[in-house]
Specification:
By secondary structure, the protein is an alpha/beta fold. It is 46% helix and 16% strand. The chain has helices spanning 2-13, 16-28, 32-46, 54-70, 74-87, 98-106, 195-206, 224-228, 230-252; strands at 114-119, 126-129, 132-133, 138-140, 143-152, 155-164, 169-173, 260-261. The strands form 2 sheets. It has a 4-stranded mixed sheet with strand order 4-1-7-8, with no helix packed on it. Strands 3-2-5-6 form a 4-stranded antiparallel sheet, covered by helices on one side. A hairpin with a 2-residue loop joins β5 and β6 (155-164). The N and C termini lie far apart (43 Å).
Length: 262
C-alpha cells in the first residue's frame, strides 16, 4: 500500500495537468499563497514530464495573472497574460472574466526578440521552448518562456521558466544527468535553486570577474515568487550590470553585448 502511495504521489507531482486544475481552483477561491506554491510545483513537474502541452502552459500563465493581480503586481500579471496569449491564443478560462480577456488581447509586443543558448550542449540533447522543439541557439520573443531539456520529448530531465529581456543574448547552463551522453541516464527531477540567492552571487562577483557561469539559475530565470520580488533584485542588478559593463570595457575592451551566462 505504501509503495502504491509513493508511486501515485510521484506521478501526481510530475503531472502538470492535475496541478493546473488545482491552480485554477486556488486562484478562483482567492487562495493566492496556495496558488503560488502550486505554480512552483508546476515548473518542477515540467522538468520530469513529457514536452509541455501549450494549452496547459497557457493555463498556468493565465491563472498566474489572476494571482499576481491579487498580490498587487499588475505589471507581472500583464507579463503572464502576454506569455499565455503568445503560447496558445485560444486558451482561456471564462471564469477569469471578460475584462481580463480583453486586457490580454490588448497587450502589445514586449520588444525585440532575444537569443537563447544552452551550454553545455551535449550531443543528443532535446530542447523545447514553450512546448515547441527548437534548434539552438533559438530566437524567441521577449518575456516569459518555459525551457525544457532532455534526450527526447518524452524524456525531459530539467525545466525552468525564464523572463527574457528584449534584444538580449542569454546563455543557460544545464547539468545533464549521469550517463546522458551515452544514452543511459534516466530522466531526473528538476534541481532548482533559489533565484534571488544566485542573483546576489552574480552581483557580488560581477565587479571582480567578467565571465560567470551559474548552473541552473540566474537573474533571467524566474519563478512566480521571483517575479514578485523582481523590483528589489533588478535594482541591485542594474548597479551590478553598470559596474560590470564599465569594468569590462576598460579592462577587456568589450561591452555589455557579450552573451550573459546564467
Amino acid at each position: 500500500m505504501w509503495v502504491w502511495w509513493l508511486v501515485a504521489t510521484a506521478q501526481a507531482t510530475c503531472d502538470p495537468v492535475a496541478l493546473v486544475d488545482q491552480l485554477e481552483k486556488a486562484v478562483l477561491d482567492a487562495r493566492f499563497d496556495d496558488a503560488e506554491a502550486i505554480s512552483k510545483q508546476m515548473v518542477e513537474a515540467f522538468g520530469c514530464s513529457p514536452r509541455a502541452d501549450q494549452a496547459v502552459l497557457a493555463r498556468l500563465w493565465n491563472a498566474e495573472s489572476v494571482m499576481l493581480d491579487g498580490f498587487g503586481e499588475s505589471s507581472a500579471a500583464d507579463d503572464a497574460l502576454r506569455a499565455a496569449f503568445r503560447t496558445s491564443p485560444t486558451t482561456w478560462n471564462p471564469a477569469f472574466g471578460e475584462g481580463r480577456r480583453t486586457r490580454q488581447q490588448a497587450l502589445g509586443n514586449a520588444g525585440a526578440p532575444g537569443l537563447v543558448r544552452i551550454e553545455p550542449l551535449t550531443p543528443g540533447t532535446f530542447a523545447a521552448i514553450d512546448g515547441e522543439m527548437v534548434q539552438l541557439p533559438a530566437t524567441v520573443a521577449p518575456g516569459l518562456h518555459l525551457v525544457q531539456i532532455g534526450r527526447e520529448p518524452n524524456a525531459i530531465y530539467d525545466a525552468r521558466i525564464i523572463d527574457l529581456p528584449a534584444a538580449s543574448d542569454v546563455v543557460l547552463t544545464f547539468d545533464p544527468p549521469p550517463g546522458f551522453a551515452s544514452g543511459e541516464g534516466a530522466p531526473v527531477r528538476s534541481r532548482r535553486r533559489n533565484r534571488i540567492t544566485h542573483a546576489l552571487v552574480i552581483g557580488a562577483l560581477g565587479a571582480a570577474a567578467y565571465g560567470i557561469t551559474v548552473p541552473l539559475s540566474g537573474w533571467v530565470e524566474q519563478d512566480v515568487g521571483a517575479r514578485r520580488t523582481a523590483g528589489i533584485v533588478n535594482n541591485g542588478l542594474v548597479v551590478g550590470a553598470v559596474w560590470l559593463g564599465a569594468t569590462s570595457a576598460v579592462l577587456l575592451g568589450r561591452g555589455l553585448a557579450t552573451p550573459r551566462t546564467l
